[in-house]
Structures are given as C-alpha cells and as structure tokens.
Design a protein that fits this description.
By secondary structure, this protein is an alpha+beta fold. It has one domain (3-10, 25-300). Helix content is 20%, strand content 37%. It contains five helices and 14 strands. Strands 1, 2, 3, 4, 5, 6, 7, 8, 9, 10, 11, 12, 13 and 14 form a 14-stranded antiparallel β-sheet that branches. Strand 11 (251-261) and strand 12 (265-273) form a beta hairpin.
Length: 304
C-alpha cells in the first residue's frame, strides 16, 4: 500500500474515532480543481514558447517577436496580444521574453519570463520558467519541466549560462517516459508536453498539445479547496489540448490522491476525465474516501 495512503488511513481511523460527528462530512469534499487548471495554463504557455523557438531555428519567420542574439543565447521579445491561441478573459496577455540556447540542430534549452503578462490561478501567478529542454522531430516538439522550474526568481538575465554538467542534466530529462500508470507518473515528478505541429511551423493555431506527467506535493492555488497542510499528489495522462477549444482538454484523465489530518480529515482518491464537448468541465468518473460523493459530478476548469 502507498505509504501516503497507509499513514493517512491510520490517522483517519484515530481522528474519526474521536470525532464521530464528522463521519458524514468526511465523504463530502469536492476535489481540488485549480492544480489541474494551473498545470494546463503552464503547459500551454511553455508549449507555445517551445514551438515558437523551434520554428525560428528551423528557418521560419516569427512576425510577433523581436529577436536578438546575446552570445549563444537567442532572445525573443514576444507580443502575445492577439497572437496567443490560448488567451482567455481571466488573464492578461501582452509580452513575454524567451531565451533559447541552441544545443544542436534539433535541441534547445529555454528560459521564459512573463514580463508583461498575467497568467494566474487563484493566488498563483505564472511569472518565470527556467531551463526547459526542448527537442524537435518530424512529428512533434517536446518540452519537459518540473515544478521546481516554475517561478524560480525575479532576475531577468539576458543569457543562459550552463555548465556541461547542467546541460547534461537538462538533456537527461528526455529519458523520462510517457506512462499511463498514474503512480509512475507521480514518482517521475515531471511534465512532458508534446506539441504536434502538423508540419506547419508557421501556423501555431493548428497545433495539438498532449500532456503526460505527475507531481508530488502539488502547489495548491485556492486556499478554500484543501488546507495547506495536506499532501496532494496528481497525475495527468494524455490530456489533449487544442486551440479549437480553450475551455478544456478534449480527452485525457487526471488522478489525485490526498491525505490531510488536522482539525478536519481529508483522505481519498479521485479520477477525472475530460469530456470532448468543450463545456469547460472535468467529470469525476470514480472517487473514494473524502471525495466519494463527488462521483459523477462535473467541475469547472475556469480556463476560458
């Protein structure tokens, strides 16, 4: 049995034995949705920057960017206003800065600064993303990041300086495998973004993004969803995201497990599915423990 679940179960039995009046409310928690929303917003922003950079390196013009070079680093000042396919009414999109260090013909490492753009979920705002390895092939562009790559600092340095060891570490992320096993995805603690470019790098509005990955101790975005002391693990398997529908992915599943014991007790698992009706919701297809009564319910992703 997963150590998180085992420990939480022991605490749960103790807590409920002392507070029998809370047994009914224990099964009536809504699953946290904002971590899903945050991950999708981060994914689409990184995927867009990865595609833009690789398109330039493959010889395509980037009309919505001013491009400079600083030694081995290519700097893109990107105008998102009216150009970003995943823009929505809840965020502000103006300019971002992408630094790209080209490692080989098909590989680059990116750093992204959201200098005049406000992409947020609750009390979380996406500000900076560092050292994202990107690789191109005839079918897709792949970028990989982990939670520690997000909002790493406020200094906007205009170059990427990495040692050979640091470059090797970044490139080693390409060995991370896409998996349909949620526990394996969580243990990898990384997100894989595949951008299927349709061999039209000049057109970023026909790209399909597919997300695989997982994370432990997910940063929660709304304080009222789950108390901060909880331990949340999340995996997203095969979430396909397209500019044709920015309200929700049109397929894929999410797995979450959570354990928290303080004044309240939260312990449970939940599986969610993205319907293809573009209604902006995720459907709970199975749930246990604290999320038991959420089975069959749909929850707003707040992506539009």
């Amino acid at each position: 049995m997963n150590r998180l679940v085992y420990t939480g179960l022991i605490c749960l039995l103790f807590a409920l034995s002392c507070k029998k009046e809370k047994v009914e409310s224990f099964f009536n928690y809504d699953p946290p949705i904002s971590p899903i929303t945050k991950t999708i917003k981060t994914t689409t922003a990184i995927g867009y920057c990865a595609t833009l950079s690789m398109a330039y390196f493959k010889g395509y013009s980037i009309p919505n960017a001013i491009i400079n070079n600083n030694g081995s680093t290519t700097i893109f000042y990107v105008n998102l206003d009216g150009n970003y396919p995943f823009g929505n009414s809840r965020d502000y999109f103006s300019e971002l800065i992408v630094l790209a260090s080209r490692i080989s013909e098909d590989v680059a490492i990116l750093t992204i600064f959201f200098t005049d753009t406000d992409i947020g979920v609750g009390n979380f705002t996406l500000m900076n993303v560092r050292t994202i390895p990107v690789i191109w092939d005839e079918e897709k562009i792949t970028a990989i990041y982990a939670s520690q790559d997000i909002n790493f600092g406020s200094d906007t340095l205009m170059d990427i300086t990495l040692t050979n060891e640091e470059i090797s570490f970044e490139l080693s992320r390409f060995s991370i495998q896409r998996t349909s096993d949620e526990q394996v995805a969580i243990d990898q603690n990384a997100w894989i973004i595949d951008v299927y470019h349709q061999n039209t790098l000049e057109n970023m509005y026909d790209d399909n993004y597919v997300l695989y990955g997982g994370e432990q101790n997910v940063q929660l975005c709304y304080a009222d969803e789950i108390p901060e002391s909880s331990m949340l693990q999340m995996a997203i398997i095969g979430a396909e995201i397209s500019p044709d529908c920015i309200k929700n992915p049109n397929e894929g599943v999410v797995f979450m497990q959570n354990a928290m014991v303080s004044e309240d007790v939260v312990l449970g698992h939940v599986f969610l599915h993205f319907p293809d009706d573009c209604a902006g919701k995720a459907l709970v297809i199975a749930a246990t423990g604290s999320y038991l009564l959420s089975s069959g319910k749909k929850y707003d992703l707040n992506l539009d």
